[in-house]
Amino acid sequence: MADLADIAGDLAERDRAESLALHAARTAHPRPTSRTPADRCAGCGQPIPAARRAAHPAATRCAPCQAAAEVRRTRQHRTGVW
Ligand SMILES: [Zn+2]
Q: Ranges for the Zinc finger DksA/TraR C4-type domain (predicted)?
């Protein structure tokens, strides 16, 4: 029969392994942040102009695609249709 120290040791080991796996996954596929701006627009796939990235470092779309997305979102909000 396992005593509490064995159980605690097993849980700590499992927790450590999960943390290491999560860290490895995040390192392999970092999410875009304001410090790592997206190079390409999420809408059209074209490069986001440097001026837009400078003005909005967290931008994930070019200006026309962002405007279109905002219009769609406003319409969806108004009509309730998603
Ligand atoms: Zn675009």
A: 40-70
